[in-house]
Amino acid sequence: MAKDKSDKAKILENLDQLEESICKKHGCGSVMRGRHAIVDIDAFPTGIISVDIALGCGGLPLGRIIELFGPESSGKTTTALTFIAACQKHFFKDKNRYGVAAFIDAEHALDPEWANKIGVRWDDLLISQPDSGEEAFQILEEMILSGLVDLVIIDSVAALIPQKVLDGDIGDSNIGAQAKLMSQGLGKLKGIINKSKATVIFINQIREKIGVMFGCLHGDTLVDFVDGRSIPIVKVVKERITGKVWSYNEKLNTFEQKEIVDWHDNGVVESSDDFITISAVGPGTKNGNITITVTPTHEIMTDRGWVMASDICTDDMLLSKQKTLDLYDIYTHTYAKIVEIRTASKRQMRAPDKYDLSIEDNKCYSAGGGNGVIVHNSPETTPGGRALKFYATNRMEIKKTGVIKDGDDTVGIKSVIKVVKNKAAPPFRSGAFEICFGMPARPVNGIDCYAAMVEVGLNYKIITKSSTYLRYGDINLGNGMNKAIAFLHENPTVYDQITQQIYNIAFQVTGQNKSLELNDQTSNQMSDLTPKERRVPDEPDQTNIDEEE
Question: Which range has highest mean pLDDT (27-31, 247-251, 355-359, 387-391)?
Fold first, then answer.
């Protein structure tokens, strides 16, 4: 025992010398040990309470790169402008000033009138319209190094065209040029973004994959038709069998009957490693088994959301369906437990062809036999290569889930943000909100933060509903959502109280509130709390622990 203690003391002494040597050469704090090495993640509120909760740390993390991506007309730019307005209203205590934001408009399409209506202080906003991707990164680097900018929005990755492409002729082959630009630029800026405590958000679009659009299922994988047939996909494709298959609507959380609209035979794979066979046990299947064989990049719906087959493990549960009423074809979602994951067998490799189907609307279908599991056939991807996916602390996918109608007129849209990657808190949380167009029937420009707060308040049972009447404690908010929102507009103190209570409950539950930077100097934002006050009540005081040690 004495020898062990001596060796431990010697190691600690050598580590002290190593730490001192590195800090002397590279600067204080270049290397640290233990709990002192990682600092709490500070954040500032986005102005959308549902998104703050989805992010898990109370807002946009400081010193991090974020990707905001989604299809056209889903609200990407409007959401980003809302973030800018929130940043400009937020008081950063460590910098002793209100936030400064910048917008790098690579698309040359920013609408100043709409930005003003959303709440952006246009005169205080830094705007750049670069001519090339390289120029955009150089301007971004200078902004970050200045230490004067807290939030930078780049709209969008697809518009960051390398100078090499601009100098060439239309039709020239420049494969990988933009991906190389993104990889070099992000690799250089990642460190200085973190040190400057600035948040950088890249808006990204969605594209169709080329070359890997289809061809994700082995021929013996069964396709589940609504009439009860389960047919191998090789037969469905070669015979071009028509009919409706079971599909899953993520927006409505329901199973639907959808037509096959196209059939795809996409060649062969080279080895058994190019196929992954997943066996699961679920209700209502033959012998209780569901088996699918897919390529590693094919996505399958799990309890974690869409996951590539290569990333699925035996702890995952696969989404399946279960009939709720025997007399009707009404199904609810359930989960099948994975019992085996392996590469393709020798028998399967005798026919190494790969196939896929196109399904209307939902871009997914049930496969595997019986009640099956849900597999994706979406060919969607984002421009700019893979670098941004790796460097981003958060990846937020925004989708339009519906429209808001007043008679025949569209007065807004409903959108939802899903955090598909999160290094600051648990991922796969969603935050819904409404974007209004300022029409008389809904006189709100941009995101209706009040409506989002009321919905979250109802979810947390802070706001109660009796028939159509909404109440907060003893306070009657009004009859219906519109009356409640009007009341909160007229009584900002009540709005602040409800918001404060929501944040307190939400971040005590997640345990993330100790790192949340809040603000009491702006209306409709939370009050500042010291790090000690922001800790979860049951969490030990780390300051006292340090002193004892």
Answer: 387-391
